Amino acid sequence: MAGRSVVVGVGHYLPERVVPNSEFEKTLDTSDEWIKTRSGIERRHFAAEDETTSDLATNAAEAALADAGLTADDIDAIIVATSTADLTFPSAATMVQARLGMTKGFAFDVQAVCAGFVFALSNANALILSGQAKRVLVIGAETFSRIMDWTDRSTCVLFGDGAGALVLELQEGEGTSDDRGILATDLNSDGRYKDLLYVDGGVSTQSTGHLRMQGNQVFRHAVEKLTKTAETALGTAGLGNSDVDWIVPHQANIRIIQGTAKKMGLPMENVVVTVQDHGNTSAASIPLALSVGKQRGQIKQGDLIVTEAIGGGLAWGAVVLRW
Ligand code: ACO
Fold it and tell me: How confident is residue 1, by pLDDT bands cut at 50, 70 and 90?
């Protein structure tokens, strides 16, 4: 017997406003064709002016709770993965906690940029397995539209806003890789690469700043590091690439997604792809893809899933879980 963190609910929220690539043609020297071919992105959602990350996160959390048939009273902890919290403090997670009417337990944010959801899942799993929480709401939520430089065509066309959430619950398994729940995690970072992808502002520098990225340099790291972390996590779970039903990757660029699947020897039929509709929503992209993948009828109970993500830091990692 072994404790496992099992997904019992999933949900997402996307802001109403949909922005097609053609919108950028009006203000920038770019084209729908360039954006589609180089990134796979066709459209993205942008939050309304008065809509914040904790609003998106709360909506996604409510959808996940409804899917689980639970209420906020059933939850012991909330973790929000975000780099775009409403305020410097308190955390977006405590704002969600208040909005859900949850007066017990604890809530905090995790900041690992695009890898944030993988880091949050791994932390939630550790809290559950160490007996500190039985049910954890894990949310990825971002408003990257707030940190775009709208004059920089190499970044502002790539990102979007959104949120996704999972409810994890402690259940007893057999201790084998046939169990439902999180089977293995693998986390990595290497701060030597901090200049490849960063925001040129922050509290200590007294500004908000804009996202800066050497996209082609990040690209060079992505496929190799994502493949390695996914295979490491699968190996820890005693599984191989051929056991995978679904890769649910961070949705940054279709070419990175295709390159990683190819390197893992898996066809694109085994990959959940949402990048065309959402753009890169950073820490929200994986829970969004899990929720949409379930809605589409792709992800079913018992499926073996590997999620993988890389982002600013660089920070990267993977989680293997049976749905
Ligand atoms: N429209 C038209 N041309 C453009 C645009 C645009 N929107 N953006 C850049 N270009 C031009 C460049 O100026 C360059 O022109 P030049 O050759 O005259 O200098 C040319 O297109 C090629 O630029 P590259 O950057 O080499 O293009 P690339 O094929 O690498 O694609 C992209 C760029 C989409 C950014 C890609 O590198 C990528 O996806 N990188 C990884 C992004 C990523 O995964 N980030 C990690 C997660 S994000 C996070 O953690 C927050």
Answer: confident
